[in-house]
Design brief:
alpha+beta; Beta-Lactamase; Alpha-Beta Plaits; 10 helices; 13 strands; elongated; disordered C terminus
Length: about 350
């Protein structure tokens, strides 16, 4: 029996090492499978991670555990998991304890530690009564899983740092371009083509903000812009900081008309937002759509960028987009309220697609 347990532990460690190369979620899934393979009577495996002083469920497996997926245990609760976290070692379910899962007859809670830092607490349970010695056998696997989990978390943090802007949390240009390329390729594979709407957004006169109020104020404006942009998209869309005060937004399955309407709403939101400054901040937006304005990711970016500069040349605080024959149409601020009532009545400024870039 001891040889079998040693082989089980070695196989588990090897699986955890491989899982750490994929993701932190993969590490938890691997430990879950290992606990179940240890004894088929184990029917509940959960992991809770620190959330401030509390513990929040980040993984739950087993039919009896499904209701715990959003469970948060308050710091003051005298719960098995809290006791394990405070003790820094495994804790077995006692007769007088309240089980986490209804009708638990066996449970062990064990912390996953990176040195002294608590990464998570594992909870392994069974509806049947199992020997207390099972806790001693499972604890080494949970301890080794903590090492793999810490490695996976560090790798994920590094990848996130390489993909996201440190100030705004938005995608960086290279990451966004990869995403745009993948989305165009995926859209091309859909019968009849899936429409993609790309915004190129510029913060008007941003240099003046930095010059008059300092870079801290400028950073606050960029963070505010990021928040407004993220609030204007839905699941599946993505937002990026293109550099400086420029941003890109990719809307999936959104028509040009709907994309223009939503971009105009963004301009209104930017204009109304205080940003904590005694000046009004506005935005200029350029729009291009796939496959109607461009057939590749690179061309789509160029078209949206050109449309944005057309907005800036024609007064800023407005939305421009391509129409027939390569010309632009510009939706003026005063036309915003008319767009929803009657698009045909909106006043547009038509212009050629080629022109010099103006300053921000």
């Amino acid at each position: 029996m001891r040889i079998v347990r040693v082989r089980w532990l070695l196989d588990t460690v090897a699986g955890l090492l491989e899982a750490s190369r994929r993701s932190s979620e993969a590490v938890l899934e691997t430990l879950d499978r290992a606990c179940r393979s240890f004894d088929e009577r184990i029917d509940g495996v959960l992991f809770f991670a620190p959330s401030g002083e509390d513990l929040a469920c980040v993984y739950a497996a087993g039919k009896r555990a499904e209701h715990c997926r959003r469970l948060v245990l308050a710091a003051g609760e005298a719960h098995l998991l809290m006791r394990a976290a405070r003790a820094g070692g495994r804790v077995l379910l006692r007769t007088e304890d309240t089980p986490l899962l209804p009708a638990d007859r066996f449970a062990v809670a064990a912390p996953m530690l990176d040195g002294r830092r608590l990464l998570a607490v594992a909870y392994v349970a069974s509806y049947e009564r199992l020997p207390a010695s099972f806790g001693d056998s499972l604890a080494p696997a949970i301890e080794r899983a903590a090492v793999a989990y810490a490695v996976a978390l560090e790798r994920e943090a590094e990848r996130a740092g390489a993909m996201h802007d440190g100030l705004t949390g938005l995608l960086l240009p290279e990451a966004f371009r990869h995403r745009l390329h993948d989305e165009v390729a995926a859209a091309a594979g859909v019968r009849g083509h899936r429409v993609l709407c790309l915004w190129f957004v510029d913060t008007d006169r941003f240099k003046e903000v930095n010059d008059r109020f300092g870079h801290a104020a400028g950073d606050a404006v960029l963070k505010g812009m990021a928040t407004l942009l993220e609030s204007s998209v839905t699941t599946g869309d993505c937002v990026a900081r293109n550099g400086g005060d420029e941003f890109c937004v990719l809307l999936r399955g959104v028509s040009k008309a709907r994309g223009v309407e939503r971009a105009r709403a963004l301009c209104d939101a930017v204009r109304r937002h205080g940003f904590g400054l005694p000046v009004r901040i506005t935005a200029s937006v350029g729009i291009a759509t796939y496959p109607y304005d461009a057939s590749s990711a690179g061309a789509l970016l160029e078209k949206a960028d050109a449309a944005m500069y057309h907005s800036k040349r024609n007064g800023r605080d407005r939305v421009s987009f391509f129409v027939a024959s390569g010309a632009f149409a510009t939706l003026r601020p005063e036309a915003a309220s008319e767009l929803s009532r009657s698009p045909s009545r909106c006043r547009f400024n038509l212009g050629e697609s080629s022109a010099e870039r103006s300053s921000s």
